[in-house]
Specification:
The protein is mostly helical and about 450 residues long. The protein is about 75% helix and about 0% strand. It is built from 21 helices and no strands. Helix 4 crosses helix 17. The longest helix is centred in the N-terminal third of the chain and has 42 residues. The radius of gyration is 22 Å and the shape is globular.
Length: about 450
């Protein structure tokens, strides 16, 4: 008999629930909490994050080089890149505007007594924010795209310079004679496929990593800190659900896709991204699944890593709500011109921010000063930032996956037949979705 096996999504969910339970328990025992976090839970969580970081850059470089070498047309690649940036900019701008409209409509910061709120030390974020502000000056952003040392960029995990180098390398490789090109392409293809196998190995540890990371989060902030800020947290979750199902849903339908289907395909990855609050943990799987779903390798390997720097829908949505929330907390009434300035500033500061836990909080710090909102206000929401970070990370994942499909369709390179075969090959859904009379599954 075949042994019943829990799917990865169920394993991660179990780890999530157990982590919440253990974290809540530790939150009531302050003496033991510090020891368990520093000696058991934090190291167990860090192991998972490090394992993912270990494979992300080799996957991005090898997949991009193979994909670009396959395209071999600089004009076509330039067109794909241009369309990608235009689409990502439009969608993140919509996210910022939606966040501002919802915050102005529901007033999450109005009527809250600041004396009832706890604060968290944000000095470490402020130091990082100063660097972010400098790095996102326009000329500096352009210069940062070009690595002076590709190995240094790889060590620092700077995704945009790595993408830039990989694209140029792929174009150079495609221009070589076949006898020189093919061995290198096969080598990088071997590296890419090997790293995807390594990804599957690492995913076996994911439930433990999720358990540890969520336990640390709950143990540190508890549930009591959520009560005074419940209105903010609920609004952020509502905004994210609205954006996912309505805005992204409409975009998906416009290009002939279904955002619900996309969520079903990425059920494991969404649970993982939500639990770890890091979209980087699922980057390899997004590339792999989107290629299996019918998008060409060149577009998957280019759009997904680029999206992790330019298409943070959840992060920009949250940042606009949080900015208005803090302004309302201090009784500051932002004018239309100030809110437009906030939109423009967020459009700049949200670019080039990596998909790692809490970085959008740093981007928010770099933004508030532009419209005269006190930075100290962030100390009030820092304690529950992780709870909101989890939801916005899940939205980032869906936004990036949809971006791949949109660009593939826009370029006329999406393989509908391959996508349908992959969808039909998913056993969990194939058994539940009945085909019309007279039709048979295509696999």
């Amino acid at each position: 008999m075949k042994k019943a096996k829990l799917s990865l999504a169920w394993q991660i969910l179990i780890g999530l629930v157990l982590g919440i339970a253990i974290g809540a328990l530790l939150n009531h025992f302050s003496a033991e909490k510090a020891w368990w976090i520093s000696n058991v839970l934090q190291p167990a969580g860090d192991i998972f994050i490090r394992l993912i970081k270990m494979i992300v850059i080799p996957i991005v470089i090898s997949s991009l080089i193979v994909g670009i070498a396959g395209v071999g047309d600089a004009k076509k690649l330039g067109r794909i890149g241009f369309k990608t940036i235009i689409y990502l900019e439009i969608v993140t701008t919509i996210a910022i505007v939606v966040g501002l409209l919802l915050a102005n409509l529901f007033h999450p910061g109005a009527g809250i007594d600041m004396s009832t709120l706890g604060t968290v030390d944000i000095s470490k974020y402020q130091a990082t924010a100063a660097e972010v502000q400098h790095e996102h000056a326009f000329i500096e952003t352009i210069l940062n795209l070009i690595p002076s040392n590709i190995f240094a960029a790889m060590v620092r995990g700077e995704m945009l310079p790595i993408i830039f180098f990989s694209v140029l390398f792929g174009l150079g490789l495609s221009s070589l004679q076949a006898d020189l090109r093919e061995p290198l392409v096969k080598m990088f293809q071997g590296v890419s496929e090997s790293m995807f196998k390594v990804t599957h190995m690492i995913m076996n540890y994911a439930p433990i990593g999720v358990f540890a990371l969520i336990a640390v989060t709950v143990a540190n902030f508890g549930f009591a800190s959520l009560v005074p800020l419940a209105k903010l947290v609920i609004l952020v979750y509502f905004a994210i659900a609205f954006f996912a199902f309505v805005v992204l849903g409409l975009i998906a339908r416009l290009f002939g896709f279904s955002v619900i289907k996309l969520m079903r395909i990425f059920k494991d990855e969404l649970v993982l991204a939500y639990s770890t609050a890091s979209s980087e943990t699922v980057l390899p799987r997004v590339i792999e699944k989107m290629e299996a779903y019918g998008a060409p390798k060149a577009i998957c390997s280019f759009v997904v890593p680029t999206g992790y720097s330019f298409n943070l829908d959840g992060s920009t949505l949250y940042q606009s709500i949080a900015a208005i929330f803090i302004a309302q907390l201090y009784g500051i009434d932002l004018s239309i011109s100030q809110q437009l300035l906030l939109v423009l500033t967020l459009m700049v500061t949200s670019k080039g921010i990596a998909g790692v836990p809490g970085v959008s909080f740093v981007g928010l710090l770099a933004t508030l000063g532009s419209v005269g909102i006190p930075l100290e206000g962030l100390a009030f929401i820092a304690g529950v930032d992780r709870v909101m970070d989890m939801a916005r990370t899940a939205l980032n994942v869906i936004g990036n996956a949809l971006a791949v499909l949109v660009i593939a369709r826009w370029e006329g390179m999406y393989d509908d037949a391959k996508g349908q075969r992959y969808w039909n090959s998913l056993p969990h859904w194939r058994s539940k979705e009945k085909l019309p009379a007279g039709e048979t599954s295509s696999n």
